[in-house]
Amino acid sequence: MQNQDEYLREIAGWAESLTKIWPLPGGVMGLLDAEGRMEAVAFGRSDLERNIAAHPDDMFMIGSISKIFLALITVHLAGLGFLNLDDRVNDHLSWLQPSLGAGVKIRHLLLHTGGLVKGADAFPDELAQIWEARRGTSGGKPGHFFHYSNLGYILLGCILRAATGESLPVLYRRCLLEPLGMTRSLVGVTNADRARLVQGYNPARDDWPWAPGDALSPAPWFEVNGADGNIATTVHELLRFAALLRDDGQFEGRSIVPSSVLQKMRGYRAPGGEDIALFGETVSESRYGLGVNVETVLGSPCLSHGGGMVGYSSFLLIDLGRRIALVVLTNAPGECPVAQVIARVAHLGLCNPERVEAAMKQSLLRANDDGIVTTSHRLFLHATGSRRGRPAEVTLTPNDDEIEVIGGGIKATLHRDWSGQFVTSHPLLRDFRFCRTKDGWEHGDAIYKAKKSDSTAKREPHPAVGQYRSYSPWFPRFRIIERENSLFLSAPGGVEAPGGDMRLVQLSPGYFRIGDEAHLPERLTLGPMVEGKVITVNRDGCVYSRAFME
Q1: Which tens digit of pLDDT belongs to each residue from 396-426?
Q2: CA distances from residue 170 to 77, 188, 352 in whole angstroms, order as listed
Q3: Domain 466-546 architecture
Q4: Domain residue ranges in the chain
Q5: What's the whole-model pTM score?
């Protein structure tokens, strides 16, 4: 294989090509090799409006990669006697409503097995978020299932402050940043820091799923201090942290934390782990440890973690067996796993070069590369909700690795997105993703099937059907749709939003669980009605209002 510098330039060139296919302005990739050398390359743009090229020294928010820092400090402090991993949350935060922390232990928070909601983003700051969620009940018995929870790590940050009497920035700097020489890194990002970070980006429109060719716009700016994702840094400095994790707490010949801390972080395992984007076949095992995914990738033990912020997407991959680490920081939307894709392809090329060309092709997200559409066929609309304006029929036609969609006299392309669903720029089909089913294609509150519907019955939609929005940048908008006599929550995007349609399961009048699985903790409550329509809904404490009374 070519030398390391040549390889990084090759990967950077391929990553640059992804800016035409993914919602990716630019980013930086760094590599720590087995001998301890650190190198970084940049690709794309750090600022689209000013046409500024990305630079290896650029600073990004790293989102949930921050959880590894918090977990490492927590386990270290447990070893020093400040707390115990089997302490209950309420033992340290007596002001909590008992139902929120009942039976939940510190290790449950670290493992995401406490049964808490993914995100309670009704308020921008952590104490208010916890207070709003204090009456919430967990979705099942703690410790029995994995359900990623930012709220759990916010609670963990509060516990550390209570146990030590120190703020998180002081703890992070004293325990990790200063010993590692991470002098530029920030713990908590304030308005005074804004000029130090690259510009983050989101889709310019938040009311439909992003498709290739859609515009990006600068993401909303806001200060960040929550323990679930409070660090901003550079690739070079994050590689120093990766070296600490790779070397069991050692850095440049010095012991920063005991090796037992890292061993414990890898030793505890949740029943599941974070989603793997595209390249699951290279990962034979992935379960969440204490603050980090513990994986087996291409036969080697690895650690990984993704990070999604409003306007930033990042990924860290450490191959413990081969003693290499990869960091990818981008200014792509936080829900987009492009940083993970770049890191996993780069890792694959280092481990198994003959497979990297196929992986690069897979990252192009060609709609028909698996032959899902083999012949041209017509599909007919089976309307089950209240939406109007869709074509009564569409034709899907294979075109090499692409799929053409024709409806209402308009031809467009069907694009595969990173979730395995499909989007299109067709103006009559923009507002929902397409999802393949056993007998047709779902599209929002409708299904397209090969046979015409013989049903002409019309009925009034449920009063909650419609579009809802809030001022939360994490999960700004969704629709409640009705499909085959069931309600679903359908979100076009958002860091905290689900990647697919989620069934709303009624638990009592006007009160729903979001998702089919009985253990899921997210809830939606219907608000008041005006003119026969629900005008507000409450999603885990965040209130959304109906948009345009549609």
Answers
A1: 999 989 999 999 999 999 999 998 899 999 9
A2: 14, 11, 42
A3: Beta Barrel (2.40)
A4: 4-65+168-202+217-362, 70-164, 377-449, 466-546
A5: 0.96
